[in-house]
Each structure stands twice: as C-alpha cells, then as structure tokens.
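Researcher: Let's try something more involved. This one mixes different molecule types, so please make sure each is placed in the same coordinate frame as the others.
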Amino acid sequence: MILLMAWRNVNAIYQIYPRSFNDASGDGTGDLKGITERLDYIKGTPESLGADAIWISPFFRSPMRDFGYDVSDYRDVDPLFGTLEDFDELIAEAHARQIKVMMDLVPNHTSSEHAWFQDALSARDSDKRDYYIFRDGGPDGTPPNNWLSVFGGSAWEFHEPTGQYYMHSFLPEQPDLNWENPKVREEMGDILRFWFDRGVDGVRVDAIRWMGKDLQLRNDPINEQYIPGDSDPYHMVRHEYSRNSEALDCYLGSMAAVASEYDDKAMLWEDHLDDLTPLEAQVRRIYNVHPGVAAPFNFQMMHTEFGSRSFARTIDEYRSYLPDDARTFYCFGNHDESRLVTRFGDRQARMLAVLQLMLPGTPVVYYGQELGMQDADIAPSQIRDPFELRVPGRGLGRDPERTPMQWTAGHQAGFSEAEETWLPLAADYTTVNVEAQQRSPKSFLELHRRLITLRKQYDVIGSSHYETAHVDDDLYSFWRSDGVMGFLTILNFSDKFTPISIPEGGVVEVSAQGHDYTTYGYVAPYDGVVLRYSQ
Ligand code: NOJ
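Model: All components are placed in one shared frame. Result:
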C-alpha cells in the first residue's frame, strides 16, 4: 500500500497563525496581504527558510470568539484578514515560488453566528435543526448527559426559546455539527471543493476526534485519577463516549474522498492520541482512513519529557506501529502549546530542532520556532484566549505562544505599524528577530534554514527509513539512509561534553550549537550533530 502519495516531496510545512505573522493593513492584527508580503522569507531567495509549504490557521469569516476556530462563513475571508481576492493573490504568489498552501478546516463545529445555526435556533422544525445536536434535558431540567466542554463547564447549553439543549465540545459559541446527518457531510464536501478549486493544495482538519460521538449519548465515566483543582477540569471524566466513536472513520473518509477527486491534495488530521485505546490501534486506525491523501499529525513531541531515553522511546514506539511507507508529520510546537525554548531552554531547543528536522516524513514548524521565540508574558488585562478566561490560572491559556512574529528590532518588531498590536510583543524581540539572525551564521534561523534546505537537497531525509543507532542516559543517535548514502544524527541531551565513538568518514553537515568538530571524540553539551556518509 502506498501512503500519502500527495505532497510526496514537500520538505517542511511552515505554520502561520495569521493574526500574528505580518500586518499589512496597520490595524495591529496580521492579515493575508501581510503573509503575501513575506513569502520570500519562506522560499525563493538564498536567505529564505526554504520550506515547500505553508499552513495558515483559519482566516474565514468569524466572530473570533476562538480566533477563527469559530467559522460563520466557510466560503469567505474575514474582513480582518482581507478579501477573497487577497487570498487568490496569496495563492498565486505562493505558487509562483513553488510554495504549497494548506488551509485549516474546522468541521466539528461552526460559529453560533453561522446561518445554519441561526436557522436551527429559529424553530424545532427548522431544516437546519438536525445539522446540530439538540436534545431535551433530563426530567429535572439538567443537561442531557455529563459531557464536558474542552474550554470549561458542561458541553450543553440550554436554548430557552426552543426549550432544548445543544451540544458544544468547545465554547457555547461553537455548536457541534451533527456528522451523522449526510447533509452535513455533503455541505463540508462542497466547502472543500470550493477551496480546492480556488487553488488550495491541502487541508489541516481541526479537532477530528470530537466529530465522532456516541449516538446514545452515554455518560462519560468518571476519571478516578483526576485531582480536583490540580489539572485541567476537562479531564474529570474519561472521554469514552463524547468523542472518537466508530463512525468517525466514515466522517473523515467523506472529506478525504473529496481530496482524492483532485491531484496532489493532502489532508492532515489534527488528532490527539489518548490512553483509552492501545496506541497501536489508534495509529493504525487513523492511517487507514484514506491512505492515498490523508495522514495525522504527531503531537507526542509536545508532551515528551526532556531526555534522550524518553524521546528515543516515544519515536521508536510510534514508528513501530506505522504501516509500511507511512508519512509522519511531527510537530514540536503549535498555536495551542507552549513554545520549545520556554519548555526546555535555548540550547535544548536548538538540539530538538535537529531532531525534528532529521526525522522522516514532513516536519511542521510553527512560526517563530525558527527564531527561538519564547512564550511572552501576558498581563491579566491583555489576556485574549477564551480558554484562559474560562479556566483561569492553570496555565492553559494560549496567548503566550501566539504573540507577533519578530521581524526586526524596530517599531512593533516590524510586524505592524499600529500603536498597539492584538497581543503584546515578547520582550526579547530586540535581539530575537529575523533581521538580526539572518546576519548571524550561528543563529536559530540559520540552523533551521540549513536543516530545511538539507532536506530539500537529500530526499533520503524525508523518506521513511529510520533506525535508532544508540541510546543511553545522555545520548540518542539515529541513522537515515537509503543504502547508498546516509545521515547519522547524534543528540547530546546532557550539559556535559560526552564521549562518543562514531564511524569514520562522516562529514559534519550541522551542529546545533555551531561547533566546528575536528575530531569525533565527543559531542558538546546539548549539541545536535548531523554527519553525512556517502558510500
Ligand atoms: C484545535 C485548535 O488547534 C484550537 O486552537 C481550537 O481552539 C480548537 N481546536 C477548537 O477548534
């Protein structure tokens, strides 16, 4: 079986959070024209990062309660980000540079302001009522079951005028669609065709697990491990019935089938693995949905404890479950998770960049990761994320990793001409920025550029052959080879110079910490070294 034929030669995907990348209109929030202006940064010049694709988080019409993950019109661009013509221009300019464009589809829920939901609220017998999940409350008026919203509280909201509850896995302003209804599947298919016909090359599909709910609406079992007040209250229950039902495969298949009507359109599932089912079964199931066009992200690296053994174990285990020829899409950060440097430190993040960009498949790099951007401090008055506002003080907020891209040391880091930006800049922008790093051969940016272009130069890095070479308490090394040539990647997870013996004849292509190795007797603290071997 050949897996994911589409996007076969894409070396890396660069994730753009459009509010924060570049503001061309000068209103303090990023926009589509802003992205177009910066495409040379992605690809096309000797200084470019060299990534073959961008994924743009949602830019559709939206009341922005969840910053675009609440879509009120799937076929239009929100005025904050520009117009459909701006999008057409973005696509044309991206394609002129051989950059593929991936958009973000949010199929689990719409905005409560979407015309379908407004119609559904108008009467119990509305045509659109069954596009959503409306149910009667219990005899005492309580919600239909104990399902929880990811963003705090019950997953059910009472609608007084029609006397029923509706279900929302996220905010009450993000009502869940009813994927059992074939009309919903058809609508989403048509939306996909609308964007594919406009030139979109791929789709990242949001929150897929939540699309599949138990049709009997059984209560989720109580999670005995949950410590009240200590962790995310969403985990008070085990999400056995509220998500990931058997029918999910069919819903996903209906979307992937649309992608397969075209040439070279890829679909990436935002799927979070959980501990309710064996990992192997989850991996095999998701890779099986529509192998020609679709594959999942791997988010495990965002939750792996720092250490040679833990990273090696997680990667080895995952890889052992992959079907032959499967493509992997490792994310080490995104708009929902704390940034790498903040999680582990500067030198550690450089080393992990080497790990990510030497693994097989297609790595996904979150904007600013290539600069070593950190989570910013957000004062209480500056909090924008509804998650933090609804479940405060538990470190769940996502504003810190969504601050403006740091282009220069100048006004608003070169992101905007406005006096105020939608989120504040991180304090370190005067030193951590594109302009400063493009001139510095040992910078984060240069490290990423080097690794991403290496992936382009040598197909063997993207192809699937991977073999762990060595793991101990400090070191983790692995081979990537095709029998003719190979790369050995050595990662030193310790803060000590660590002795190592490696085969003769390798050429050092990359050192995460910028060391010149003249002898191969040791690896410097937190270094990630890539050696190339030709046969
Ligand atoms: C996952 C997205 O990445 C996140 O940002 C969003 O809040 C939820 N899905 C809901 O759409």
